[in-house]
Amino acid sequence: MRAQFWRQWHRWIGFPAGLFLLFAAVTGVMVAFTEFFGAEEKLREATRDLISPVTVQSPPSAWADPIARAAATVNGRRPGAPIDKMELQFKGDQPTVTVFTGKPTGREDKKFVIAMRTGAVISEEAYEDKPFLYRLHSGEAFGDGGLVVAMFWGLALALLAASGLVIYVRVLRLPRKGAHGIRRVFW
Predict the structure, then answer these.
(1) Are 75 and 81 in contact (CB under 8 A)?
(2) Is 121 helix (H, G, I), strand (E, B) or coil?
(3) Which of 42, 54, 168, 169 has an alpha carbon 20 to 30 Å from 66's alpha carbon atom?
(4) CB-CB contact of 78 with 95 (8 Å)
């Protein structure tokens, strides 16, 4: 194929792909920032080298009793709420049971962080299975159509990179005056 075709194709894809790349880059930086400086990462770092007091040989009461206390506490606040999932954090100064509840009609509702030893509520907040920023970055925040657009923009970026590589390789084959060694590759 002729070089003109590749350059034209590259330009046509370049502008819209650049807009999507900018969107993906900005939201990606925001996701990385919240992940790096978030409370969950802080807890992971603080407990990474600690050894859990609960092992696979521990009696079932080591995990069943904290779950029962947490469920009773959440039931006191949201009677009869469906439980979507639970997470247990045995390590650290304040072991916790996190209970994620749903709405009786479906979807996510609340996240309760419960002190494992006492059953007291440490925090209660709104809960979504995927945070909005993650859904925005993937395009999912715009529904199924957003996911389809995200797949196309990913494909457009891949095609942009491929066409740019073809142009680059073709340019390398052209003899240029005074281009020797590394200057032939990086002009």
Answers:
(1) yes
(2) strand
(3) 42
(4) no
H helical segments located in 2-140: 3-37, 39-47, 61-77, 132-138
| Residue found under tokens 């990179």 | 161
Answer whether 0.85 is exceeded by the pTM.
Answer: no
pLDDT in tens, 63-101: 999 999 999 999 999 999 999 999 999 998 999 999 999
Residue 7 lies in a domain: no
Structure tokens at 170: 């073709």
Cβ atoms of 17 and 158 closer than 8 Å: no
Residues of the chain with pLDDT under 70: 1, 3, 6, 174-187
Instruction: Report which of 80, 71, 135 is spatially closest to residue 102, judged by C-alpha positions.
Output: 80
Total domain count for the chain?
1
Domain that holds residue 90: 50-133
* Residue 94 domain flag: yes
* Domain at 55, CATH number: 3.10.450.40
**Spatial separation of the C-alpha atoms in residues 88 and 97, rounded to whole Å:** 5
